Amino acid sequence: EFAVEPEVMATWVHFQSLFEDFGVGKGRLISRFPKDWAKEVERLARQISPPVRASAIAAKVFAHKHKFIPARRDYDYSKPWLVNAEKQMTVRPFHAVIAQHNPRGHPAVRVAGEFDKGDAPYHAETQQSVPRTAEALAQCAELLLSVCEELQLVDPHFDPAEPRFAKTLQAMLSIRSSAP
Fold it and tell me: Quick one: pLDDT at residue 5?
């Protein structure tokens, strides 16, 4: 889960550089921080970018819902976005924060256009070996399970009456039931 400053995504050069790097398959999701993050990106894009590019940014941000995750975090609208994001790093940390600037030199903040995408924490390993235990499989999907509204298991061999499948389902539902 990455916090991306709305102004970063509203800037065409950064949008082009970053947007395609996000999605479940890429191992990176953009936090909707705050909950009206997409509307703020659209508003800023209309101020910063030429009309055609602003429309393209808005269209993609609203159409590609698989790239986002609800933040479910406190946000103080009386303070700047970066101050809120930095505060969250002590409460419920993001994997990283991507912002226009890093005036306080916060170690978790990456300045858009100035960091190496091949280095941690931006680089995400998506081909991981996961032990075939109920707990490990559920833990692997913890972030997605914690925010999903519907769970669909697509496995032609799944049999809830068989203990190995029931344990995995139970572990997944346990993570889901403890989600905020």
Answer: 98
- Per residue in 112-129, pLDDT tens? 999 999 888 888 766 667
User: What DSSP letter does each residue of 46-108 carry, written as one string?
Assistant: HHHS-HHHHHHHHHHHHH-GGGEEE------TTS-HHHHHHHHHHHS--SEEEES--TT--TT
124: which 2 tokens? 């995400």
Give every strand in the sheet of 30-32, ordered side by side: 68-70, 30-32, 2-4, 96-99, 109-111
Of 37, 17, 28, 32, residue with least CA distance to 95: 28
How far apart CA 149 and CA 58 sit, in angstroms, is: 25
Q: What percent of the chain has pLDDT over 90?
A: 59
> 3-class DSSP state for residue 32?
strand
